[in-house]
Amino acid sequence: MNDLFDAIRQAVSDYIHIEDLPVRKQGKVKDSYSRFQYDFDTVDGLIETDTENSEDAS
Amino acid sequence: MPVDAGRLFRPEIPGENLTVDSRSYPWRNPPQYADFDEAFEFVVDEKLSNQDALAGAMMLLSQGMSALGAVQMMLISMVSKGQVTPDMSLMLAGPVYKTFTRLMDAANVKYLSGFDTPDEVRAFAEYMKSDAQFDTAGKAPELSKEQEKEMERITEEAKEELPTGGLMGAPTGEEEPVDIPVDEETSTSLVTEPEVEEMQEEEK
């Protein structure tokens, strides 16, 4: 199960630090979610914090 | 999977693994949620919306567990129960982590992300040593105008004078004591002693 721990860590890192990845890898990660209902933008919009709202307002 | 305490310190006999029927492991069978959307909805509905589980997670995070560790634990437990495949847990990891950390941010919980630098870990350790985490002053949730009006209305209702008088009214301390006749055999008595003749007839 240790391998799965490491793999989950890598998957989370790729997802949340997607801007730091090479462009090809970015497309690969985004494409894998784009075919589902809960893609990048939908997950982003699930929970909006107050700070984000205030940033948008300004 | 339950751990057999008697087997903890007994080494495996060489070749014993070949005699075990591994088909009964949950992760060897088809998963409960094979579709990504269904699996994500399951996590959000059953895990992240569960108040008890979330309160437990908040406590763990405030005690120094990283958000990544909590997500890893949740996903591996789902795999071990046969709810999702290991591959699906990798797909879920990113979205679940993002949603989970957003929830923690909204709840004003300070936590380690799991990708912290040594300086950030040190700062968190110092924060834990201080009593700042128990200082809830100034952290009251901000209410909207509608919520504030509702709160004022409820407070005014509670402050209104209590109804007095009547059987259900609150006691004021000025009531006169009322004697209830019990022993006197009058027409107004509530409890009367049984008549002697009736008792004798019943005995016969």
Number of strands of chain A: 0
The proportion of strand residues of chain B reads: under 5%
H and E string of chain B: HHHHHHH
Report the count of strand segments of chain B.
0
Bulk shape of chain B? extended
List the SSEs and their pairings.
The complex is a heterodimer of chains A (58) and B (204).
Chain A lengths: L1 H15 L6 H12 L5 H7 L3 H8 L1
Chain B lengths: L35 H13 L2 H12 L4 H14 L5 H21 L11 H12 L15 H15 L36 H8 L1
Description:
The complex is a heterodimer of chains A (58) and B (204). Chain A has 58 residues and is an all-alpha fold. Chain A has 4 helices and no strands. The model of chain A has no long low-confidence stretch (mean pLDDT 82). Chain B has a domain at 34-134. The radius of gyration of chain B is 33 Å and the shape is extended. Chain B starts with 35 loop residues before the first helix and ends with a helix. The interface between A and B is medium-sized, with 25 and 28 residues.
Concise description?
Chain A contains four helices and no strands. Chain A is mainly alpha-helical and 58 residues long. Chain A has one domain (2-57).
